[in-house]
Each structure stands twice: as C-alpha cells, then as structure tokens.
Amino acid sequence: MGYWLRRIRQGVVLLGFGALFGWLSVAIWQDIESGLPTGWHRAADVTMGVLSLVGFVRGWFWGRRTIRAKLADPPTPEQAWIRHRQARRGRGSANPDFGKRGGALLFFAPFFPPCVAWWIGSTFGTLLVRELPSEAGARKALNRT
C-alpha cells in the first residue's frame, strides 16, 4: 500500500474513533444532564461546550508542540524501529484492575466530553503534519550517507 494511502487510512480510522468517542461522550453527558434540575440544563450545556472547546484547542496545541519537539531531534531508523517494537510488545494485555476502578471512572464521567475533545485535538494536531518525526529521522539518515 502506498505511503499516502496509509496516512489517509490512518486519518480515516482515527476520525472514526473520534466520532465514536464523541458520540459516546455526548450520550453519557445527556444521560447525566437528564438528572439535573430543569433550570440548569442551559448552563450545564454551555459549560460543557466551553470546556470541550478549550479541551480541543489545548489538545491541538499540545499535539503540535509535541511534534515540533520531536521534529527538532528525530529518531534514527534504528531508534524508531526499537520504539515500534517496544510499543507493540505491550499490546494485547488486559488490565485486571479495571473492575476495581470502575466506580471512579463513573464518578468522572461528566468530564468525558472535554477529555474526548482533548484527545481529538491532540490526535489530529499530531496527525495532520507534513512529515512525522520517524520520517524526518530516516531522511536525515539517508542524507548523511
């Protein structure tokens, strides 16, 4: 598969996850909001909207700052490969303590929409760049030889 098709596919998949998480966070928020007194709905919606917008913007700037820092010192192809292998080694392991922390997760459910907005902002802030740090490192390694 071509380079640009892979990058486009990655963006589409992440956009799908973002839409799913966004829909889920709005559904959770509407469920929580239904328990509020009638007069509080508008204020709660405005507050959640502002928090979500702030979360998205902060996530976007965090993602861009992270990419800029990584592009300043890109990894060599060997370092990128080692990081890739280490990241793949941890996949597939279940977290046995999730059931113990489920109550705390439900307690923080009202903050899920701003967190999802931050994730979407940081993900697309780092994804929508011309060159990834690993690619910059590979280009530098090629230019050195």
Q: In words, what does this structure look like?
A:
By secondary structure, the protein is mainly α. Helix content is 79%, strand content 0%. It has six helices and no strands. The radius of gyration is 19 Å and the shape is elongated. The model has no long low-confidence stretch (mean pLDDT 82).
Task: Write the topology of this structure.
Blueprint: H1 3-33, H2 41-72, H3 77-89, H4 98-107, H5 112-127, H6 133-144
Helix pairs in contact: 1-5, 2-5, 2-6
Output the keywords.
single chain; 145 residues; mainly alpha
Parts with pLDDT < 50 across at least 5 consecutive residues: none
Quaternary organisation: single chain
- Mean residue pLDDT: 82
Structural class: mainly alpha
Major sheet: size, sense and barrel closure?
Answer: none
Could you tell me the radius of gyration in angstroms?
19 Å
Approximate shape = elongated
Number of continuous helical runs: 6
Strand proportion, as a percent range, falls in: under 5%
**Order of SSEs, N→C?**
HHHHHH
Approximate helicity band: over 70%
